[in-house]
Structure formats: structure tokens, C-alpha cells
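Residues determine shape. Next comes a sample protein:
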Amino acid sequence: MTTNCSFTEVDRLMKSLELAIYVPIFVCGLVLNILALVVFCFLLRKWTESTIYMTNLALLDLLLLLLLPFKMHATIHHWEAHHRFLCSFLESLYFVGMYGSIYTIACIAMDRWVAIRHPFRAKQLRSRRAALGICILVWVVVLGGTSPIYSFRTAGNGSFHCFHGFSEKGWRPDVISCLLGFGFVGPALVLVVCSAQSIRTLRQSGKESHKNRACVRIIYSSLCAFLVPFTPSHLGILLQFLTRKPLVEKKRRARINESLQELRVLLADTDLQLKMENAEVLEMTVKRVECIIQSRAQEVDTMNREASERFAAGYIQCMHEVHTFVSNCPGIDVTIAAELLNHLLECMPLNDEDKFQVMIQDIMTDCSTNSNSTWPSSEGIYAALVSPGGKSISSGSSSALSPAPSTTSSDDLCSDLEETDSEQNHISVDAEKQDVLNMPTVAYSESMWRPW
């Protein structure tokens, strides 16, 4: 939405509202203020401080009302250029009547507060001369404060709307701040504070008389008479100032411009862009290296597991061959055979006990079906290995390990052992070479017994 479009809509709406509000205000206000002046000037025999203030207020209100027809005419019609000074004079009188009424109402509230809150000092502070001097001071202040209005109209030959379309001088932030601060907010605070203190004093006096209740109603009436007409008008001035001076929009655009400026600097900075690219490359490299390390670790684990399984299978097979040989070889000492078997059992890998137990059972069962040996069964061997009491076969079971009595001599036994060893060595050399070629390199402890 453009600025011109928004001003057109606001001006059209304000013209309609002004015509709808000013006509009843002019008629009713003119009649009531004339009656008030007649009462104060001719019917009241004694002039008091309150009478002086009320007469001054009625005069200022009447001045303000007499200018409303000019303002309603200027709302609909354009004025010629030679009426520019007359327009400025009428505008000055309009603001004199408005802010003179505001200051007079504030003075009435202060005078009432002094009379109620400090009744003994009021006799010294309040007087008809002081009230008349304050009223004259109000006229001087508002006439001097509205004098800059004559400079708010720019010289020109074209027609214009009086009471509307001030130049940019009239909408400067300092002018609007003084107008709202000293012309409305300050007197409003004085009125509210003095009225609240007066009402509190009347209610705390403990006398709920008809006179006190009437005073409270008068104070509330003065508050309403001030806040109801003047608050919307000054709020409209503030909104129109914000419309003409879009501070919020300027701040929003400033933030957008700052963001775009920072983005431009980032895009134009080659060093920063190079650093960002290097950081991205480094991050991708780290992720790639982590993936490679994880995959290699998984491969190594798989190879180690497969090598362990092959090692265990070969170990069990060697135990089977030793078991078969010792069982079929007569004349072997029982103690030596038991120590040999205990050594093999102690060196057995136990990474996967259940799997190795199954392998031992299969091999030892196969062995027991092919021979009539008196060696322990596979369950006994495994139980002796994993039992917490010890890792060797007890001497009490030596009778179970005793082989059949031998009838051969020790020389024959030695010769048979040598022949068997030579045959086994010859056969195991080729198998060892083939296994070494096929098995991946796995690091084992030097004290571990290796079947090859």
C-alpha cells in the first residue's frame, strides 16, 4: 500500500467523521456555554475563585465552538491562496480555545485539591485575584504556544484545505512531542492526580453527607469532561503523525537493509567463502574417514572371528588325533597321558564355549564309536575344563584314563612313536603351508599353543 493511497483513505474517513461529530457539538455546546456565561455573569451575585475559573472555561469553549463552522466549511471546500493568513489566524484561535480549556480544567482541579486537601492553607493560597491572574496567564501561555502555527503554511498560489494539510514543519517530531506532552499528557496527569487525592480525602473524612457526595460527583464529571473529548483528538493527532512519519516501517526497512548488507559482505568476501569451502571439504573428509574406519573395523572383526573358528576347529581336530593315538598306543604311562590331556584342555580357546562344546562332543563321540578306549568322554573333558574347582583331570580318575595292558616292550613302543611322528610331520608340513596361505594374519599370544 502506497503512502498516497493511505492518505486518501484517511482524509476521506476523517472528513465524514468530522461532519458527523461537529454539527451536534456546535449546536449543543453553543447553547450550553451561552447559558453558563449568563448564569456566571448576571445571576450570581458573588464572584468566587471557582466562578472565575468557570467563566474563563466557558469563554474558551465558546471560542472553540465559534470556529467549528469555519472548520466544517474547510473540510468540504478549498480556500483560495489569498485566504492563507486568515486560515492561519483561525487555526491559531482554534488551538488557543482547545489548550486554554485544557489548562483551565487542570487549574480548577488544582484549586479544588487545595481547598479539600489543605483547608487551612487554602485561605492564604486561594483568592479571586490569584484566580484572575492564573486565567490571564493561561491566555498568555496558549497564545504564545500557538504562535508557530503561522509558519506551518507554505506560500503558494494554489487552493488549499484550511485546518488540514499542514506542511512538514507542523509534523516535526519536536512539535508533536511538545503538543502531546505539554498540551495533553501533563495537564491530564495533574487532573487525574488531584482528582484522585480529592476523592480520597472526601471519603476518608468519615462524613457521608449530601455535600460530600455532590463534590465527588462533580469531580468525576470534570474527569469525564476532560478525558472524553480530548483523548480521541490527541490520539488522532498521534496516529496521523505516525502515518506521515512511518517510524515502524522505516525501522523494518532498516533491519532488512542491514541483513542484505551483511549478506552482500558474506558473498563478496572471497577469503571467507574459501574458508567455508575448506571447512565443508574437511567435514566431508572426516565423515568419509569415519566410514572407512568403521568398515575396516567390521572386516577385521569378521576376519578375526573366522580365523578364531578355524583355529578352534584345528585345535579340536588335533585333540582328537592325540586322543586317538594315545588310546591306541599301549604302554603309555597314565600320569603322562593325563598331564598331556590336561595341558591340551588348559590351552583350549574358550571364546565361544557352547560352540566349542558342540565341536568337542561331535569329535569325541565319533572317536568313542571307533575305539574301545577308557579315556574320559567329551562331557567329562569339557566339565573338567570349565569347572571352577580346577582345570586338570584329578588323579582319582586315573583308573579311567588307564589304557589296556600292553605286552610290547619299550623299544617297540619308541620305534612306533618315531615312525608315527615322522609320518605325522611329513603330512602336517603340506597342510601347514596350505593353511598359512589361506588364513589371514591374526596376532596371538606367544605362550599360546599352536596346532601347526
Q: What stands out?
A: Residues 288-438 form one domain. Residues 195 and 219 are 6 Å apart (CA to CA). Residues 1-5, 370-452 have pLDDT under 50 and may be disordered.
